[in-house]
User: What shape does this take?
Amino acid sequence: GKGMPSLQSSRRGDLHVHVDVRVPTQLSEEQRGELERLEAMLGESAYAEPAREDEGGFFGRLRNAFR
Assistant: This one.
């Protein structure tokens, strides 16, 4: 794309976004049931798969080079 327009200017630039994700460590039975219902409705897995060390982009390869 062209980037995010700057205020009061015709210039465009990068848009940097910081996202904080909080993952609950313990769910009640009711919460777990609701999450499973949502999973069934969306047809997706609600459980994250661990990242493999041999996968990844530049930083993953760089990290593995120093192991």
Q: What stands out?
A: The helical segments are 29-42, 58-65. The chain has a mean pLDDT of 78.
